[in-house]
């Protein structure tokens, strides 16, 4: 019973969509209706000719609106790289295609009905067919708009060169962050190593100086290490953000590049060579893009770890370096609070 009700509800929605769109279909078909009145309509229809001529203006506006609605924001015609003139000319051309299909079919149906006194002569199915044809055209326009544009081998090679350059920068940044994180981790480990007796070279409550193994954990060097870690994480995060922007831009080109070997190329030996070059370049770009994205993700993880260790180092300086460490910690917290208030204000 529930399935029957669901089926009837679905049919009702389909019928509502079809028949509710018939007035819009008749507006789209206004040029065909006006032509039918002039060419084959009965004299009683002539008084309505002016209304249908005015409706022809509405048909163009409606076609533009419908085409604009089905175009994707990042598609071929609405993408950021598309010039405004090309965008609107493309929308106008597709609106003309929609009007051409709907009106050609409508005029054919009206001509078959012969000389009539009314536009609708006993059946609305001709306009249902027009509506279905219009929907088919809009679906085709939407699908075409979402397909990536053909890419040239020159574009792929340029993008691959940029990806390899960005990958080298990210690898170097990852290595720098890794070394800094290891340095902070080593200092934290030495600070947290329990010491007993006077062999540690300092009395309780006094700033740390040096451990017996030669690693400097003094207050001054700890402050320098904290500042270097903070600056390293900050600059690395900016570099990774720039790389992420390149990855997002490159992702669209990678999608186009994967389809490149299937696009039209000349036949014969030259065509096979061109297709092979496209396939090889697309594979290289895909590998570089995937590795760049993985290295950026790895770097961002290391930056988060470095930030966590830097925060721990800050608290260890406060707890291990006596009064100078506490004063430094309080001044640092005040500066951080001021910067946060300035950003939010």
UniProtKB/TrEMBL annotation:
Superkingdom of the source species: Bacteria
In this chain, the stretch annotated as Disordered covers: 193-212
Spans traversing the lipid bilayer: 53-71, 91-111, 123-142
Which key words are in the record?
Answer: Coiled coil, Membrane, Transmembrane, Transmembrane helix
| Coiled coil ranges | 156-187
* Record-given protein name: DUF2637 domain-containing protein
Q: Which organism is it from?
A: Amycolatopsis samaneae
């Amino acid at each position: 019973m529930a399935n029957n009700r669901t089926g009837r509800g679905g049919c009702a929605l389909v019928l509502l969509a079809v028949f509710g769109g018939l007035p819009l279909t008749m507006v789209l078909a206004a040029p065909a209706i006006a032509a039918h009145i002039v060419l084959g309509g009965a004299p009683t229809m002539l008084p309505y000719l002016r209304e249908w001529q005015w409706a022809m203006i509405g048909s163009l506006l409606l076609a533009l609106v419908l085409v604009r609605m089905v175009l994707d924001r990042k598609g071929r015609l609405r993408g950021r790289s598309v010039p405004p003139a090309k965008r609107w000319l493309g929308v106008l051309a597709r609106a003309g295609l929609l009007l051409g299909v709907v009106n050609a079919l409508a005029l054919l149906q009206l001509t078959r009905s012969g000389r009539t006194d009314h536009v609708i002569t006993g059946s609305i199915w001709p306009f249902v067919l027009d509506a279905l044809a219009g929907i088919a055209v809009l679906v085709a326009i939407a699908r075409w708009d979402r397909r990536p544009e053909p890419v040239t081998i020159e574009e792929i090679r340029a993008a691959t060169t940029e990806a390899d350059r960005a990958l080298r920068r990210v690898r170097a940044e990852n290595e720098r962050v890794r070394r800094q994180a290891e340095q902070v981790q080593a200092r934290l480990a030495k600070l947290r190593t329990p010491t007993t007796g006077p062999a540690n070279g300092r009395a309780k409550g006094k700033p740390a100086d040096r451990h017996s193994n030669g690693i400097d954990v003094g207050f001054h060097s700890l402050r320098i290490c904290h500042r270097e870690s903070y600056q390293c994480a900050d600059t690395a995060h900016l570099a990774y953000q720039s790389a992420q922007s390149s990855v997002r831009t490159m992702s669209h080109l990678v999608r186009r590049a994967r389809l490149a070997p299937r696009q039209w190329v000349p036949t014969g030996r030259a065509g096979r060579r061109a297709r092979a070059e496209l396939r090889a370049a697309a594979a290289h770009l895909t590998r570089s893009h995937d590795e760049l994205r993985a290295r950026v993700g790895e770097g961002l993880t290391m930056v988060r770890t470095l930030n966590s260790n830097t925060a721990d180092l800050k608290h260890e300086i406060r707890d291990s370096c006596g009064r100078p460490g506490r004063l430094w910690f309080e001044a640092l917290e005040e500066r951080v609070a001021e910067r946060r208030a300035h950003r939010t204000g």
